[in-house]
Amino acid sequence: MGQGEAKNRAWAEIDLAALRRNYRWLKSRAGGRELIAVVKADAYGHGAVPVARSLAEEGAGMLAVVTPGEARQLREAGIDSAILLLGPLLDAAEVESCLALDLDLAATRLEALELYAAGARRSGRPARVHLKLDTGMGRVGLAPDEVQRAVAILRQSPSREPVGLMTHLAEADDARSPRTELQRRRLGEALALLRDGGLEPRWIHCDNSAGIARGCWPDASAVRPGIALYGAQPTLERGLPLEPVMSLWARVCHAKTVPAGATVGYGGEYRAEGPTHIVTAALGYADGFPRAASGFRLGAAGARLPLAGRVSCDLICAEAEGAGVEVGDPLLVFGRDSGRSIPVEQLADAAGTISYEILTRIGARVPRGYSGG
Q1: Which of 136, 175, 188, 285 shows the smallest number of beta carbons within 10 Å?
Q2: Residue 157 pLDDT exceeds 90
Q3: What does the alpha-carbon distance between residue 320 and residue 278 come to, in Å, rounded to a whole number?
């Protein structure tokens, strides 16, 4: 999409300087621990390559992705940082391909350890393994009672030692939950078993963005921030000094005054109570704006404009009576500009979802522009 076309529709502005400042704040909270910067899902919709480059320049000890394709994209862009593959590998060919990309591999099953060891023997490359424990999330990971078996497998593998030991916190966003400390304790017990077996992982990590905000686990050597890098709030309190990295804009493409009783949008759910100035912006659910966010208000200069009618595939309408908004004007969906700010959490709340989903669903036809790199 060309620049002219972008300015006639919707676009996202990515502030890499804000990304760097968020990284530095998280680094200050980490107490000297390494940062494993999570850039999965196209860096949560922000663009994996420019984001990864900025974070590597800031000194991130490792990057983390979920799929081999995400890792390959970074390597093909010339990014030579250490990369941890968080997602599963299910066949030998994938393992050898990932070893050729010089990736660290998360192992969530005992069978994965056997698979990685076989791949290392065939390829002649070491398999750098991070043992992932299921300490309470309940999705994937070795059970605590499988750790001793994992130690035995690792002691017989070509690379012998795990490079990392990790888990994922399920409720660190909620300060009232006791589960975070329970999960950390279980990880500590697994670490003791590894050490009893003569194995010493370099990377010991469990704290995600919310965990870092709560205070890092003392036994960890690294932390693994994701959403906080991008300026979204990882805790229920939403009080952290983070800066939004993405600002989403939509251009007004139509404006008119409708009479009392006029309907707008599919199903005629919106009906004007009186003569009302209605503007239409070139953004819809195909671009990632959630259809459920009918109560949201778009940002205009000095005003917030309530949506009028259902969100369409390519368009949204809003009431703009008295706001002086006309065709060609930009509307701020979320982010910041010239002293005004609309947190992405406001859109997430209106849609009954979370900021993670909003950011990762901003579609490919919304071009990203970068500054502060």
Answers
A1: 175
A2: no
A3: 6
Q: Select 31-230's CATH number: 3.90.180.10, 1.10.580.10, 3.20.20.10, 3.40.50.800.
A: 3.20.20.10
Question: Which residue type, as a one-letter code, is found at position 230?
Answer: Y
- Strands, E, within 91-244: which ranges? 103-107, 128-132, 164-166, 203-205, 222-223
Tell me whether residue 40 is one of the annotated catalytic residues: yes
- Look up 23 and say whether it is catalytic: no
- Looking at residue 216, its pLDDT comes to 98
Rg (alpha carbons) of the chain, rounded to whole number: 24
**Active-site residue, selected from the candidate residues 23, 116, 256, 266:** 266
**pLDDT of 158 strictly over 80:** no
pLDDT digits (tens, 9 = 90+) for 220-242: 999 999 999 999 999 999 999 99
Q: One of 7, 23, 27, 40 is an active-site residue; which one?
A: 40
Residue extent(s) of CATH 2.40.37.10 domains in the chain: 246-371
User: What's the topology of domain 246-371?
Assistant: Lyase, Ornithine Decarboxylase; Chain A, domain 1 (2.40.37)
Residue 355's nearest CA partner among 175, 233, 173, 208 is: 233
Whole-structure pTM value: 0.96
Whether residue 262 has pLDDT greater than 80: yes
